[in-house]
Amino acid sequence: MGPDTAKEEIRERTDLVDLISQYVELRQAGRNWKGLCPFHQEKTPSFNVNREAHFWKCFGCGAGGDAFSFVQRIENLAFPEAMKFLADRVGVTWEVDPGHRQARDEREEVLSANDVAMHWFREQLAGQAGVAGRAYLESRGLDADTIERFNIGFAPAKWDGLLQHLMGRGIGEERALRAALARRSERGSVYDVFRNRIVFPITDVVGRIVGFGGRAMDPEDPAKYLNSPETLVFKKSRTFFGLDLARRMIGELGHAVVVEGYMDVVALAQYGVDHCVATLGTALTEEHAKILSRYTSEIVLVYDDDEAGIQAVLRSVRVFEGLPAAVKVAPLRDGKDPDDYIREFGTDAFRELLDDRIGLVEYRLRTIFDQYRDEGAEGRTNAAREAADVLGDIPDIARRQALVGWAADAWAGPDVARAARLEEALLREMERRARSTAPAERDSWERVLVNKGIQYGRGKPGGGRRLSRHEWLEQQRQRDQSLAAINIARWGGHAPESPLSPVSTDFISDSLSSITSPLVQSAQRRERLMLTAMLERAEVAALVLQLLRPDDMLLGSHRDIATCVADAREDEAGVPNLADAMERLSVNEELFATAIDLATAEGDYDMDAVMEDVKLIREAKLLGGENVPGFKADRKYKATPEPVEAREKDESLADIEKQVREGLADGTLTMDSELYKRYMDIRRRLHGIGELPMWDFD
Predict the structure, then answer these.
(1) Which residues contact 112 (CB under 8 A, 6 or more apart)?
(2) Which residues does residue 198 pair with via DSSP β-bridges, in sequence order?
(3) pLDDT (0 to 100) of residue 331
(4) Could you say which architecture CATH assigns to the domain 518-695?
(5) N or C end of the chain: smaller count of CB under 10 Å?
(6) pTM for the complete prediction?
């Protein structure tokens, strides 16, 4: 057999409880076995082993994995040696492809060199060479537990201290160079990259050390912070500091906090804010954004309260436009960075800061207004021009229109007359840009409207029956809303056929589409609990997959995990084999780590809640529209010809939407409320009931 088949066979034959029991005293606790973690000091057991799904997880230090990763860590072996160790234990042999083995071995060599370096840095911090380093960390308020949790170390000022240690462990110069732990000078000599620095190990999402960051001890050093160069295992545009430790809490809390530096992450974690990550000396990239959006639907930027911090936020705006996650900003005050802020004001104050977060667009507008606030009429004109640029980037029609009024109020404060003047200036600037559009393009928009069946008059469209008064009024409302949106979309550069065109989607599907609405956030929490139950109990997985397709889930990582469960081998009753599902998940280490977080989460799941949870997830998907991660605008549903009748004179969908939105926000409205059911009934009719029974909950 080949190595991949052998790996699966080894995993299947290995009893993980028996294996780990050779190193850890385990006691059964429900579906899991628990004990004291062998990888960090603890008094209360937080180390969990699941025999059926073949994984282990420590909630104290965040380590986790399968039989292979356990043996690697406990025996200090590279993957090939760990695989051979387990193969000999269960009697499996295989043939190895030389090319595949070489590529894997090169990565393992870099990873193992990094691991040796991390332990050496930690030894230096604890010894005589680390006196100054320990004093610095103490001055920053870090305690011993935090230093151990993040494996913080120290690199002495010696030019080849680490290199000599590596060579003593059988790791030569060339391997140290490939791992970016050493550099070669122009004269050919090889020396350590990190010298006289506090060293922070940088890990990937599953906790492997892929690089290092160093903070200079010498205040005259021009490079205050230094990161490892990119290697086979380290790509700055795809790596966050602290994500392996923060990943679980990000999923539980429903949002991730992004800060600028290692010390911000470390300090916030020490104060109990455990869902923070940092980029590594680079601006936030699209790859960064996509990675975080797999774990959460909301990302909060908390950057330093200085000019550089503000510019970092503004650079991040366009990175996140069009991506699944909603991005917000929690502006710091008094010139603080996150580290200083939480030390001075405390955890509660920092959490209040996060609670007051605002959208990126609102942040951009506030920045513009602060710049021009005291410049009179000229400033008002410049503010309107730049604000119009910001508003033109928003594809969501309802949100864009609401932000015009919000922008005017934010500019004016309590001065109502001033707010009216700015709103007028904004609308005038938008109208000016709309009128500058070429006539041919305006005609193309008109043709799209006609093709969509939105036209004047009460004639017989397509030779059909004469429209009722209600249908005619609804048609005119759609046309008026379309034309208003087109005036903004035209100068924004959106073609009629583009995905961002207001006539390419259902206009009425936008007003409750914020993915941070209480309904959608609740659905994501229930989806997480449901997926946890699916990974624990095969009968739950079978039931859920009968009712909900993996593609219907809200978060990308949840969809991928559910797909692996759905693709797993089934028994005669159609129940998926969870061990096979975990094997499929293990192919993607990042996905496997997320699945372990879910599968070992605390709490029981009530089978009777499945139908309600499926309903909630589907409705969140419908309400979320394009703003819900993974939603596809090309709906597979047929529109229903049945008209939606108003119950009261002059009743409008906008009024109903406003009441529902406010009720959901303040908790006075539930899914069982008549108003909510009325609203969803209208939305389903306008959206189309469709060929699939997914909206038919009765």
Answers:
(1) 78, 171
(2) 154, 215
(3) 84
(4) Orthogonal Bundle (1.10)
(5) C
(6) 0.63
